[in-house]
Amino acid sequence: MSDHENLRKFLAGQSPAWLADRLVRAAGRDRALLAELQSAASGRDAVQTARQELDRAIFVSGFVDEEEVGTYVAGIDRALEMLAGLIDSGHAAQAAGLAEHALQLMHESAESVNYEYELAECAGFAQELHRRACLAADVDRRALAAWLFDSVSRDDYGLFHSAVADYTQVLGEPGMERLRELIDTAMATGMRYPLLQMAEQAVRPLGVDAVVDVLAKDLRAARQYTRICQELISAGRDEQALEWARRGLKERGSERDHGLSELRVITVSLCGRLDKPTEAVELAWEEFAANPSLEAYKRLCEHAVTEGTWPSWRDRALAALRAQPRIGESSPVPDSYRPPGHSTLIHVLLWEGDEEAAWRAAQQGGCADALWLELARRRTSTHPADAATVLRQQIEAAVALTKRDGYDRALSLLAELRACHERMDTLDQFDDYVTWLRNANSRKHSFTARLKNACQPR
C-alpha cells in the first residue's frame, strides 16, 4: 500500500471535527488551499477562484529580488496545484485555459523577477499541467499547435526552452504537422534562433536527416557544422559527418570564428576513426598551432604516433612552445586566453615525465603561480633549496593580499617551507625568515597574531 493510500485510510477513520480543525489550520498557512476551501463553502465557481489565485500569485507590482524569489515561486506552485484539482473534477478544458493564462502572466512578469530560472521551473510545472489538461479534454491538436508556436516564438526568457519536444506526444501527428507548417512559413521570412530551435525539436521525431536539414538552413557559424557532425556521429554515420566537417573547415576556416577549434577537434577524431592518419595529424597540428595546450599536444601525439611520425612533430611542437613570449615580454593580444610565459611547455614536459626540463623552462620563461608551486613541491625532496625559494615568493604574495584566505595560505605554505629547511638542516634560517616576515608586516595585526601562534622561533 502506498503512502497516499495509507494516509487516506488514516484520515477516513478520523472524526469530521478533527479533520475540519486540521484543514482550517493548514489553510491558515496556505493561501491557495484557503481559497479552494472558501470557494467550496460559498458555492463560488472553482474556476474563477483558481484564476484569481493565479493572478494574485504571479502578478508583480514591483520587483522580486533574491530574498523574495523563493516565496514568490512557492506561491505560484501552490496556485498551480489548484489546476490539478480542476482536472480531476472534470474541468480539464477550463484548467487548460487557466494554464495558458498562467504562462502568459509569467512571461509578462519575468523581467521583474530575479533568477529567471526559478520562474522557468514554475513555467515547466504549468506546462506539465497544461499537457495533462489538454489530453484529458481532448483539445483540438491543430489549435494547440498554433498556441504553442505563438508562445515559443514570443518567449524571451527561456520559459518554453524545450516545450516543442515536451508537447510532441500531446500534439500527435496532426498537431506536429500543423506546427511544422507554421514554422516553415515563419522561417521563409527570415532566420531567427527561436525558430531554428523550434524547428529542430519539431523534426527530431522524423529522424537525423530531418534534423540535419534544419541545422543546415543556417551555416553562418562553425558551431553549426559541429552540431551536424554530432548528430550524424550519434547515428553512426561517420563518413557523412566527415564530409560535413571538411565542408565547414573549408567554408569557415578563413573567418574569425570561435567555433573553429571545436570543429577541428571533431574532424581530427573522425579522421582517426576512419583510418586517415595523415589528415588527422595535419589538422591536429593546425589546432595545436592555433590553440597550444596540453590537450592539443596529447591529441597531436596520439595521431602522429599512429602515423609513425611523432619524433618530428614533437620537435616542431616543443619549438613552438619554447618560442612563446616569456613573462615580461610584450606579445600580440591573442584571440583567447593563454597561460602566462612557458606554462604550456611546462605542462607538456611534466606530462612527459621530464621534471628537470620543466624546471629549466620555468626558470627561462616563467609560468603561472600555481605551476611554480607544483614544480616546487615536486623538488622538495631532491632540491629543497629550489623549493624554498619558490615557497618564500608564494608566501609573500599571499600575505600581500591582506585577506584572511591569503593569510591562511601563507601559514600553510610556511609549514611546507619549514619542512624544506629541516631537510637542509637550516632551521635557524627558517626562524630568521619568520622573524623578518613578522617585522615586514607589523601593521597587519591579524596576520602577525596568527603567525605568532602558528610559528614560534625555536
Structure explained in plain terms:
The structure is a single chain. The chain has helices at 3-12, 16-29, 31-42, 46-58, 69-88, 92-109, 116-137, 141-154, 163-166, 168-187, 193-203, 208-215, 222-234, 238-252, 260-273, 277-290, 294-307, 310-322, 343-351, 355-365, 369-379, 384-400, 404-424, 427-440, 445-454. Helix 4 (46-58) packs antiparallel against helix 5 and helix 4 packs parallel to helix 6 (92-109). It has a domain at 380-458. The model has no long low-confidence stretch (mean pLDDT 90). The longest helix is centred in the first third of the chain and has 22 residues, at 116-137. Helix content is 75%, strand content 0%. It is mainly α and 458 residues long. It is flat, with a radius of gyration of 33 Å.
Quick gist of this model?
The protein is mainly α. The chain has helices at 3-12, 16-29, 31-42, 46-58, 69-88, 92-109, 116-137, 141-154, 163-166, 168-187, 193-203, 208-215, 222-234, 238-252, 260-273, 277-290, 294-307, 310-322, 343-351, 355-365, 369-379, 384-400, 404-424, 427-440, 445-454.
What's the helix and strand layout?
Blueprint: H1 3-12, H2 16-29, H3 31-42, H4 46-58, H5 69-88, H6 92-109, H7 116-137, H8 141-154, H9 163-166, H10 168-187, H11 193-203, H12 208-215, H13 222-234, H14 238-252, H15 260-273, H16 277-290, H17 294-307, H18 310-322, H19 343-351, H20 355-365, H21 369-379, H22 384-400, H23 404-424, H24 427-440, H25 445-454
Taken from the alpha-carbon principal axes, the silhouette is flat
- Structural classification: mainly alpha
Oligomeric nature of the chains: single chain
Distance between the termini: 71 Å
Write down how many β-strands occur, each being a DSSP E stretch of 2 or more residues: 0
Estimated radius of gyration: 33 Å
Largest sheet: none
Helix content: over 70%
Number of separate helices = 25
Taken in chain order, the helices and strands follow as HHHHHHHHHHHHHHHHHHHHHHHHH
Integer average pLDDT: 90
Unreliable parts: none
Strand content: under 5%
